[in-house]
Structures are given as structure tokens and as C-alpha cells.
Amino acid sequence: MQRKLSIAGWLLFLVGGALWLFNIEVPFEEADSVLIGLGAILLLFSGIMKMNNQQS
Fold first, then answer.
1. How far is Cα 23 from Cα 39, in angstroms, rounded to an integer?
2. Closest CA to 40 of 14, 19, 21
3. DSSP helix/strand/coil, 1
């Protein structure tokens, strides 16, 4: 589960970064910021899960 969250987080983060970097317009506003934010949140949860697994 932790690995899937990590992969999904990185994908969202990279897609959002690419949209922002290349200034690609999408149908809804601030899509790049939303994708980067969601990716960062998923990576945060993934890191927390990894820390919890290492402690037990």
C-alpha cells in the first residue's frame, strides 16, 4: 500500500510539475497546483506509513 501511494504521489507531482513548467493549459484552472499538492500529500502519507512500518 505504501509503495502504491508513493508511486501515485510521484506521478501526480511530476505531471503537475510538467504542466507548470511547460505552461500547458488544461480545462480547469490551477490544475498544476492541484496535482502538485495532491502528489505532495500522497508522498507525505507514504512517508508516514513507511516510518510507522520501520518502528514496528
1. 18
2. 14
3. coil
DSSP code string of 2-43 = HHHHHHHHHHHHHHHHHHHHTT---SSTTHHHHHHHHHHHHH
For the chain, the C-alpha Rg in angstroms (whole number) is: 13
Q: pTM for this structure?
A: 0.86
User: Which amino acid, 53?
Assistant: N
> Mean pLDDT, consecutive 10-residue segments, the chain of 56 residues?
94 95 88 95 96 89
Q: Are 12 and 35 in contact (CB under 8 A)?
A: yes
Please name which of 31, 48, 46, 40 lies closest in space to residue 13, comparing C-alpha atoms.
40
